[in-house]
Amino acid sequence: MPKNINKITLVADVGGTNTRIALARNGSIDSTSIKRYANREFDSLHAVIKQYCETLSVDQITASCVAIAGPVENGTGRLTNLNWAMDQTGLKQVTGAETVAIINDLQAQAYALQDLPNSAFEKVLSSPAPHQEPLRHSTKLVIGVGTGCNAALALTDASGVRVPASETGHIGLPVRSQDDLDLALYLQKQHGFASVEHVLAGSGLETVYRYFAKTAGQAHNLSAQQIMAVMATESDPVARKTVQITVRLLAQLCADLALIHLPYGGIYLVGGVARALAPYLQRYEFATAFYAMGRFTQTMERFEIALVHDDYAALTGCANALHGLRG
After folding, report:
1. How many domains is the chain built from?
2. Over residues 132-138, mean pLDDT
């Protein structure tokens, strides 16, 4: 059991598949307190947090922040890919904390960037162009590809870091080729709308694989894990085509968001699907697709992209968000 856990804060990162919970003090995570729970084993987030507190005998939590993989409005967060919700009143009840916050999970990822070690970042694209403004106050963009998809900005000024919420994963899918259009029309027929998350997520990989298998006259389906497993053996042409178009559409999303937000402080990819795609980014010309913005190609060269390997970064982000809330 971690030492000196009285008067401590509780932070949680709630995804569509797993929930990670930890204790923190003064913005620092106690690594010995981190626990991970499979959501399928619980009927609510309240039950997960309650079990965590009982397991660690925590009964004097002063503040708590929960990051939700879904929209948060008026202090209530609802998961997009799981029928769970949590509001500030419920979080106060289950933790006993006086100060509580509920934020989007990508907001938490963005709040964490400033405190992650260099070892947490794997460079995807480096910028050959000189930076034209101080990195200290440059905008940073986090793009999450996991069970779902979303993005968040870290806006830094003299007063600190601000991270507005968004639901970027539900914007329209970028279409720049006939293959993109055919896929978008298929998704529109299936869902009524072709969104980014319909492709750039774990379930998205499965949907795209199913689409290409169908067009190839095949009837079999694979899970996201199975798709990436057969990619390692290079034995399935449908899997290769699935990953190829997924990599290209990820690059196109990064490029579109880069020109909207101008993140000269860097673009950061997070999430299990992003990490699974990492070995294939170069092979399937992620850089080529990212830079292919016509007369703005030179502007694109100013944006660096890195992959974040810290699976618990959102917990640090929750602690940072709480620290700022409490002054």
Report:
1. 2
2. 62
Q: Is residue 85 part of a domain?
A: yes
- Summarize pLDDT for 237-249 with one digit per residue, the tens: 999 999 999 999 9
The 3-state secondary structure of the chain reads CCCCCCCEEEEEEECCCEEEEEEEECCEECHHHCEEEEHHHCCCHHHHHHHHHHHHCCCCEEEEEEEECCCEECCEEECCCCCCEEEHHHHHHHHCCCEEEEEEHHHHHHHHHHHCCHHHEEEEECCCCCCCCCHHHCCEEEEEECCCEEEEEEEEECCEEECCCCCHHHCECCCCCHHHHHHHHHHHHHHCCCEHHHCCCHHHHHHHHHHHHHHCCCCCCCCHHHHHHHHHHCCCHHHHHHHHHHHHHHHHHHHHHHHHHCCCCCEEEECHHHHHHHHHCCCCCHHHHHHCCHHHHHHHCCCCEEEECCCCHHHHHHHHHHHHHCC
* 28 part of a folded domain: yes
Residue 58: its pLDDT value, please? Answer: 86
254 or 25: which carries more pLDDT confidence?
A: 254
User: What pLDDT was estimated at residue 136?
Assistant: 61
The model's pTM is: 0.91
